Amino acid sequence: MSTPLARAIAPLRGVRPERSERRLRAVDAPRRRRRPKLLYGIVALLGAAAIAAAQMSLSIMTTQTSYEMSKLNQQQSELDWQAQILYDDIAGLSSPQYLAANATALGMVIEESPTYMRLSDGEILGTSGIALGSSAINALGRGTVANSLITDTPLVTEPDATIAGLPAQTVVGEDGVVDTPPPLTDGLPTPSTH
Q1: How far apart are the C-alpha atoms of 99 and 157, rounded to whole Å?
Q2: Low complexity bias: where (predicted)?
Q3: Is 104 within 8 Å of 140 (Cβ atoms)?
């Protein structure tokens, strides 16, 4: 009874299992280890160097790209500001104050008694005469709300004139000193203090 089942049951019956013979044998001499080939080492080092170079180049390209993105964002914001300035200029040039000031500078006047045309039959209602003289309404903006978008914009007829009028003339005195009157802001000149 040398089966594994018999050996497992034997201690329960009080029978000793048979002893199998152990074979001992002498260990062979260790085999000589082969030296790793030089080619494998070179390939491993070249692979590590290639990975390091790829990582370095990707890092440099990422950094360069972020600088280019920052520069392009700055250019975009400058272009947005320029577009806003141009939009404000167009809004000022199409404002009623600027159009009325240019019309007045060109000699147009506002008719006191307006004339209308009825579109259904084309009949003209009102007095249909030419407006002579000057207008009772000051279209150059001195009595209207100021428009800061067109304050420095020149009129069509005179490039030196703006909606605020002609620029102040500088007078040079006999001694070569420029004589300019103090600016009038609220009527009377006052000293500017801090």
Answers
A1: 12
A2: 185-194
A3: yes
Judge whether residue 89 has pLDDT over 60: yes
Residue 136, C-beta contacts closer than 8 angstroms, at least 6 positions apart: 110, 112
For residues 27-55, give the mean pLDDT: 88
